[in-house]
Specification:
- The protein is of the alpha/beta class.
- It contains 17 helices and 17 strands.
- It has helices spanning about 15-30, 35-40, 70-85, 100-105, 120-135, 150-155, 165-175, 180-190, 200-205, 235-245, 255-265, 290-305, 320-340, 365-375, 405-415, 420-425, 425-435, and strands at about 5, 40-45, 45-50, 55, 65-70, 85-95, 110-115, 140-145, 205-215, 280-290, 305-310, 315-320, 345-355, 380-390, 400-405, 435-440, 450-455.
- Strand 6, helix 4 (about 100-105) and strand 7 (about 110-115) form a beta-alpha-beta unit.
- The protein is globular, with a radius of gyration of 23 Å.
């Protein structure tokens, strides 16, 4: 059950808050890992169907489970409910261990807590445990892998001569300089032995099926958790070019540069590529994604009588750019409303990036909401909400924020300047004072961010 509350919503003039809450809740339920996997995993007599693909249980010596990511525990729980004693043993790597969910799992399943968004020693322990686990596998075994967002940091095994400290420092640099998640993961894949198909290499020669909850727009399998069981089209040169693009080669530890150079010069092998024979042993399936959530949102908005539309162009880019895009849609649809005379619910998905300039507290969704509030200031009967589906927007306890054309006016009556909060990346404290934080708690899922525009 998802508990969603909109902090001080009535104080910023949001009408129909009950319908908006219910739309949010139904949207998150649609991408709840347990709901998704119940549809994906089915057992009929001696045949296991994974995303409708048949696996004949009698043809395997043993079945194992590996679950990695923010949604790893609920995903593993459903597999164990369906298969029970058919699972010989397994490993679950999670961001924050839920003890109740751990108790639901068999004692044959080991739960390990990694670190996110930066890897730490626990992330290395998790990777090493998986590598040890893989040594017992044979060609007659089946491994069910469950992958969700956050896996890149939660499971980390730096390549030889690359230190954990170097990876931590580089990841922080890339996060601070507006690098996209695809760029960050391209670099990660070439500094780590688990990523970029590395996990599949360790699991070989076992049969592998991977069920994936996508947190990447466009569902590029090689980018979700850095693609541990899929081929990688990026190269060492691509990774080096990203460091050059952001002018950080001078501050990167020499071990990273030496490692990338060795790869570029063919001294060490590339990540797993499309023609690798080991790929014959794996099937990768998407079980849920951002589109799943968006479609569910539209269906519920329709039930509440909105004229609902889906924005197919992803909300990506800098938070300022996304805020401007949302404001442009508001103005366009506000004019259209005069003709159709029916309330709008506009829904889109994506993931923005934050340019860190200040020392405030916030997340990308809260910052997008605040930029939007500035742009729609004074426009009546408009509500904009943006939230992270995992319930975690940056280092805060909020999933995102909700604003209206009255938000900035309310701030001014409190003597607050929204621009100053934006410059200091302090959107969270802005909304604490003005109202509008969306708090869901950890949702147990992760399919990117959602953006809503309500116009009445």
């Amino acid at each position: 059950m998802i508990d969603l509350s909109v902090h001080k919503s009535n104080e910023i003039g949001i009408a129909n808050i009950e319908s908006i809450n219910n739309i949010f809740i139904s949207t998150l339920r649609a991408v709840d890992p347990e709901n998704l996997l119940k549809k994906t995993i089915q057992l009929h007599k001696n045949t296991l169907f994974l995303n409708k693909y048949p696996y004949h249980i009698s043809s395997f010596r043993r079945i194992y489970l590996i679950s990695i990511g923010k949604a790893s525990q609920p995903m593993a729980s459903i597999v164990m409910q369906v298969l029970g004693n058919l699972i010989h043993s397994g490993i679950v790597i999670t961001k924050a261990e839920n003890k109740l969910q751990t108790e639901k799992l068999s004692t044959r399943i080991k739960t390990i807590q990694g670190s996110h968004p930066l890897p730490d020693e626990d992330s290395i322990v998790a990777a090493e445990e998986i590598i040890r686990f893989s040594k017992i596998l044979t060609a007659n075994d089946l491994v069910i892998c469950l992958i969700s967002g956050g896996g890149s940091a939660l499971v980390t095994k730096p390549a030889e001569k690359v230190s954990l400290n170097a990876i931590q420092k580089l990841t922080s640099q890339l996060l601070r300089c507006d690098a996209s998640i695809n760029e960050i993961n391209t670099v990660r894949k070439h500094l780590d032995v688990i990523k970029g198909g590395g996990l599949l290499s360790f699991l070989y020669p076992a049969q592998v099926v991977t069920l994936i909850l996508s947190d990447v727009m466009g569902d590029d399998l090689s980018m979700i958790a850095s693609g541990p069981t899929v081929p990688d089209s990026t190269t060492f040169q691509d990774a080096m070019d990203i460091l050059i693009k952001y002018s950080i080669t001078q501050s990167v530890e020499v071990g990273i540069l030496d490692h990338l150079a060795s790869g570029i010069n063919g001294i060490i092998p590339e990540t797993l590529k499309e023609n690798d024979p080991r790929l014959a042993q794996v099937n990768n399936f998407i079980v849920g994604n951002n589109q799943t959530a968006i479609v569910a949102a539209k269906e519920m908005a329709d039930k509440y009588g909105y004229h609902s539309e889906i924005i197919t162009d992803p909300f990506v880019g800098n938070t300022y750019e996304v805020g401007n895009k949302i404001a442009d849609i508001v103005r366009a649809k506000k004019s259209e409303l005069k003709i159709n005379n029916k309330p709008f619910c506009i829904i889109g998905g994506g993931e923005s990036t934050v340019s860190i300039r200040g020392r405030g507290l916030g997340g990308r969704n809260q910052e997008v909401a605040l930029y939007s509030a500035v742009q729609i200031d004074g426009i009546e009967d408009v509500c904009v909400a943006t939230l992270a589906t995992d319930g975690e927007d940056g280092p805060t306890d909020a999933a995102g924020a909700i604003v209206t054309g009255k938000t900035i006016k309310s701030a001014k009556t409190l003597g607050m300047d929204a621009t100053r909060y934006l410059i200091n990346n302090d959107s969270y404290n802005f909304f604490v004072k003005v109202g509008g934080l969306i708090k869901t708690g950890s949702t147990g899922t992760n399919v990117n961010d959602l953006n809503f525009i309500f116009i009445s």
